[in-house]
Design a protein that fits this description.
about 300 residues; alpha+beta; Jelly Rolls; Arc Repressor Mutant, subunit A; 2 domains; 9-stranded antiparallel beta sheet; 4-stranded antiparallel beta sheet; 10 helices; sequence-specific DNA binding; transcription
């Protein structure tokens, strides 16, 4: 769904030569907008959905997309860069070339922005039932799936990772399959998609074992404790405050202290909106020592007092 007038043409079997990828087994569409051309190739397998989109635009493009159902997907930015945000403008994420990450969006309308130039992206949406059945092969996805099922946040992200050689080879196989070469095309595509997910699992396992992610995991698990401070983290990880702040901020773009405030505020708002707790009860559940300090921080963060969430 594009904010500028769009003309959509079915070009299945006739993808233009300038595109990097040509998926013989996929349906294809050319989308002409007033800032350029978009080529979409997509394939619906009974266990996953795959789409490759290539953009050739001469000025910036802002577009909307609708999530009809809450979906988990592996997003891969192959070339260029893209900025995602909620329809009201709230920032979600930015992705640059050769980066991938697992994410989910809840049902709703979202937007993205692309600068002028050429961009390529690909995403795989595995069916939820298939992921659940095979979760033992992707242990890092399990807590993320639990989060998707339990919280009310409109989106969530796992760590972004570089697209290394192993994943690149598996992705090239997935996008280059033909019905002539592969007698059982569906089985071959499923095998290739599993390999892509497997390589992301390896990359994210390595990344989440690094210090910044261990610190973040500690904050996520212990934000309810009012004793959680930079000093506690320094002692726990045997590092100086300077190293703590610089290491964390280099990875997440925010200090541990500010991340903890953000996490506590978001969790408090969820509790208040769910009506499971009153403002005079919530402060104890999100790590504050008293209601006054919680109320001041909440109003500073959201611009209104906790009582207005009821």
């Amino acid at each position: 769904m594009f904010r500028s007038h769009a003309v959509v043409t079915d070009i299945t079997g006739n993808v233009p030569r300038w595109t990097k990828h040509c998926l013989p087994y996929a349906k294809a569409e050319r989308i002409d907008v007033n800032v350029g051309i978009i080529i979409s190739q997509y394939y619906s397998h009974f266990l996953f959905f795959l789409e490759v989109v290539e953009f050739d635009i001469h000025t910036d493009l802002q577009a909307d997309y609708l999530m009809e159902d809450t979906s988990l997907f592996l997003f891969m930015m192959l070339e260029g860069n893209i900025l995602f945000h909620k329809h009201d403008g709230e920032y979600i994420a930015e992705a640059k070339g050769d980066v991938c990450y697992a994410t989910y969006n809840r049902q709703g309308l979202y937007s993205f922005t692309l600068p002028a130039g050429r961009h390529r992206l690909c995403y795989i949406i595995p069916r939820n039932e298939w992921v659940t059945k095979n979760i033992g092969k992707y242990p890092r996805l399990e807590p993320f799936l639990d989060q998707m099922g339990q919280d009310n946040l409109p989106f969530g992200h796992m760590p972004s990772c570089r697209i290394e050689k192993g994943m690149e080879r598996s992705l090239d196989k997935l996008l280059g399959r033909t019905e002539i070469k592969d007698k059982d095309l569906e089985a071959a595509l499923l095998r290739d998609s599993k390999r892509v997910l497997y390589h992301y699992q390896l990359a994210v396992e390595k990344k989440m074992s690094a210090r910044p992610y261990l610190i973040k995991e500690n904050l996520d698990q212990n934000y309810r404790s009012s004793d959680l401070t930079n000093k506690v983290l320094m002692d726990r990880f045997n590092i100086t405050e300077k190293t703590l702040i610089e290491t964390f901020k280099a990875e997440f773009g925010i200090t541990p202290h500010n991340y903890l405030i953000q996490l506590r505020m978001q969790m408090a708002k969820q509790l208040l909106l769910s009506k499971s707790s009153s403002p005079t009860e919530v402060w104890q559940l999100v790590g504050y020592a008293d209601f006054r300090s919680f109320g001041i921080q909440f109003k500073k963060f959201f611009g209104f007092p906790p009582s207005e969430c009821i």
